[in-house]
Amino acid sequence: MKIVATLTLAAAAITMAAPAQAQFAKPEDAIKYRKSALTVMSTHFGRVGAMVAGRVPFDATAAASNAAIAESMSKLPWPAFVEGSGVGDTKARPEIWSDAAKFKAANEKMQAAMSNLATVAKGGNLDAIKTAFGPAGATCKACHDDFRKE
Ligand code: ASC
User: Fold this and answer.
1) Whole-prediction pTM value?
2) Domain spanning 25-147: which superfamily?
3) Residues contacting ligand 1 via CB (< 6 Å)
4) From the CA of 83, how far away is ligand 1's center (Å)?
5) What are 95-144's pLDDT values in tens digits?
6) Is the dihedral of CA 104, 105, 106, 107 positive or negative?
7) How far apart are CA 34 and CA 102, in angstroms?
8) What is the domain partition of the chain in residue ranges?
9) Which of 36, 34, 133, 121 is nearest to 86 (CA)?
10) How close is the Cα of 65 to the center of ligand 1, in Å?
């Protein structure tokens, strides 16, 4: 019984460590997943942006919380850009796969900018948040310009 349990656990561990490709049953699932993560990231990044732009009053706790969520979300979409998921309900451009190194560099730059924003936001200083926010937004735009259709 003990051996069976051990083997079951080992099999589960291997399954969980399987490449990203195997984690989505269908390309549509990967598309839905990455769009969801990007939507949540954009929503929370936008809430920080509303404070930066003065559209809503600055609330340090909310800014830090929203920036932390944006940082977490920024890590998720990339493994979901699996080969073969460039068709269907997606604006992904073929360059994501044909120029994978550039795409990786672009999304790593974005993740670093989101991490920086989250770190700065913990400090609760609106001016510092403003300084970190702009470059983070620029990394979103840069990736859209090169890798998103329209
Ligand atoms: C956002 C958001 C984006 C980026 C982009 C920056 O808040 O949802 O996609 O910033 O508009 O240019």
Assistant:
1) 0.86
2) Cytochrome c/b562 (1.20.120.10)
3) 42, 45-46, 49, 137, 140-141
4) 25
5) 999 999 999 999 999 999 999 999 999 999 999 999 999 999 999 999 99
6) positive
7) 18
8) 25-147
9) 34
10) 18
